Task: inverse folding
């Protein structure tokens, strides 16, 4: 009887979460199995182990092979300990109990979190990030392709001032806005409507740049009813985005890719491959945008939008996200404190769209008041 040749393993992650430092024998089956399970589970995992050889061999004094958290339990308690750990984590996430001093800690090296306390420094850093990419591309004699949001917005005036002061030619700049409002029939807002994102971008960025330095209109793109079915292809045909900029919505959305869309996809692979489309806005998003842009009148907020999708976000060579979700300059109340933590520290899943940023090269910058601890205050 012939021996069947073992098939090679493909698609195994390179990251190691069970490494050197254990005392198992060479070729130990349970050790190899543990290593592969850890690879499959990933960095956002907590491992629990009952008393046994994998406990004894892996808990030498002051040494551990575990890169992720590991907990020892008694023989009969492993099931209840796992259930309790999961329930405790869910409770902590519901309460936003990741303190400000630990919010920048993350196991994925390519997902970099920082906090900037001062608002002027925050928007100045955002503007500098944009302008530096434009200058770098100019010096390399190539186009600079950026995906841009409406929210945050104050950085654009700062960026325009830097461009004008330094006389930076932006003729090589190609921009794709993330999204645009649409009515109940999926017809996108006219570019001259005062509530449109096209109006906001021309008022806050493009219109502020010296016409001699401004990118040509053919390089400035907004999603609309006519082009939304090919908008993702337009970005790809431009060579893909050098950087996708953005913020995080109340429901965890990026652009208007809403949390409710997770129900449409069976797997994360399908979800990450999704392309630009017209979507229906969630109630949370409507309330958030009413608060920021429509004087609190939610009846003014359009019910749908044209938006980029996970494939466009993950397809960019870099991602730079900026969280400034405060309820106006006169208050220290933030609607973004919890969702900022859930996106950055919660599990990667289809129902928190921003969570996919954890798995890609991303800079995640939080304004100090947003990073502050959430507390119950009934005063």
Result:
């Amino acid at each position: 009887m012939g021996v069947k040749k073992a098939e090679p393993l493909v698609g195994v992650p390179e990251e190691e979460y069970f490494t050197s430092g254990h005392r198992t024998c060479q070729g130990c089956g349970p050790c190899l199995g543990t290593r592969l399970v850890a690879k499959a589970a990933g960095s956002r995992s907590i491992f629990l182990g009952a008393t046994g050889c994998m406990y004894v061999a892996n808990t030498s004094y002051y040494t551990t092979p575990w890169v992720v958290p590991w907990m020892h339990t008694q023989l009969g308690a492993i099931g209840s300990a796992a259930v309790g750990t999961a329930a405790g984590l869910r409770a902590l996430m519901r309460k936003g109990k990741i303190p400000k001093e630990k919010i920048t800690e993350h196991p994925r090296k390519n997902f970099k979190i920082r906090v900037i306390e001062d608002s002027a420094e925050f928007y100045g850093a955002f503007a500098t990030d944009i302008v530096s990419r434009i200058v770098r591309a100019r010096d390399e004699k190539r186009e600079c392709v950026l995906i841009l949001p409406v929210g945050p917005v104050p950085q654009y005036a700062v960026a325009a001032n830097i461009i004008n002061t330094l006389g930076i030619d932006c003729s090589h700049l190609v921009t794709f806005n993330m999204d645009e409002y649409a009515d109940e029939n999926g017809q996108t807002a006219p570019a001259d409507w005062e509530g449109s994102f096209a109006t906001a971008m021309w008022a806050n960025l493009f219109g502020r740049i010296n016409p001699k330095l401004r990118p040509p209109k053919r390089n400035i793109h907004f999603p609309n009813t006519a082009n939304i079915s090919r908008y993702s292809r337009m970005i790809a045909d431009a060579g893909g985005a050098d950087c996708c900029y953005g913020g995080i919505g109340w429901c965890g959305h990026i652009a208007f890719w809403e949390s409710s869309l997770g129900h449409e996809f069976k797997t994360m692979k399908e979800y990450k491959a999704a392309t630009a489309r017209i979507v229906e806005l969630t109630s949370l998003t409507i309330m958030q945008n009413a608060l920021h842009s429509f004087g609190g009148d939610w009846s003014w907020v359009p019910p749908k939008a044209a938006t980029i999708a996970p494939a466009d976000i993950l397809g960019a060579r870099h991602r730079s996200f900026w969280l400034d979700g405060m309820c106006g300059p006169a208050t220290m109340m933030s609607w973004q404190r919890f969702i900022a933590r859930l996106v950055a520290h919660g599990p990667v899943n289809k129902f928190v769209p921003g969570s996919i940023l954890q798995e890609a090269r991303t800079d995640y910058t939080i304004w100090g008041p947003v990073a502050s601890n959430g507390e119950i205050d009934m005063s």
